[in-house]
């Protein structure tokens, strides 16, 4: 089948690779522009671009798409039977959705209608969900509101981070796409409308989402530590800078104390009080601009003791 593929991050790579393995003709790839990253802010291409170039597929990287006549020209010239979209990073205009004969088919990393939006993997973990999955969806003009073509669920591991879950879901998505696309071509799938009453949302992450609100329970904070990796991270403010928590888990509450108070120290880390008589064991931590370290090493180096607080008085406790 002649296709156009639209995707950007590592999550989208297995889907494009599977389309090529299955023998589809991917006539063009659309991805986001190269971006500066790392030391020296050198320009880095998106992972999807690298795979496309390795297979000599024409790559297009428009900064905007809604009113871009060059994009319309490419679609009109290729006349794809379908457009496959996986984490492209832009909302597609209605005129583009209407060009492919079989429409635009999206590989979305949640069990729709739950977690519509830009960051479904992060928010599913951050909100403590125990199950998520992949939905293959027929795109329409709304935000992840189109009818469902197929769906596959998977459990979220107790200590699974967002990057780890994204890697698993990318493979599940590629496999489900491979199974679904031929059935769409043959007209053997009846799309199922989503129930809007069951919809939840996963908005784009912001830096401030990572600020620890110590009025949350230990479990809620621990889920955010897992869900907000690698960005924005989960952090508190300490001695004028950010203190990033990389590994933490809820533990049994033993000592009544104000939230953000160190209540005990263990071999595996430092226990901090949270809301509703819960506690958080912090195991790995990082002072902004320095290396990651065990929380116990940090506490020893900072000369903090039981009863001290692990946040500045000006932290977002009252936000």
Topology, pairings included?
Elements: E1 2-7, H1 13-21, E2 25-30, E3 35-37, E4 42-44, H2 47-54, E5 59-60, H3 69-78, E6 82-86, H4 94-97, E7 104-108, H5 120-126, E8 131-138, E9 148-155, H6 162-185, H7 218-227, E10 234-238, E11 241-251, E12 262-266, E13 269-273, E14 279-287, E15 292-294, H8 295-302
Parallel strand pairs: 1-2, 1-6, 2-5, 6-7
Antiparallel strand pairs: 3-4, 7-8, 8-9, 10-11, 11-14, 12-13, 13-14, 14-15
Report on the structure:
This protein has 319 residues and is of the alpha/beta class. It folds into 2 domains: 2-198, Rossmann fold (3-Layer(aba) Sandwich); 207-318, Methionyl-tRNA Fmet Formyltransferase, Chain A, domain 2. The protein has 8 helices and 15 strands. The strands form 3 sheets. Strands 5-2-1-6-7-8-9 form a 7-stranded mixed β-sheet, with helices on both faces. Strands 10, 11, 12, 13, 14 and 15 form a 6-stranded antiparallel β-sheet that branches. Strands 3-4 form a two-stranded antiparallel sheet. β14 and β15 form a beta hairpin. α1 (13-21) runs parallel beside α6 (162-185) and α5 (120-126) packs antiparallel against α7 (218-227). The relative contact order is 0.11.
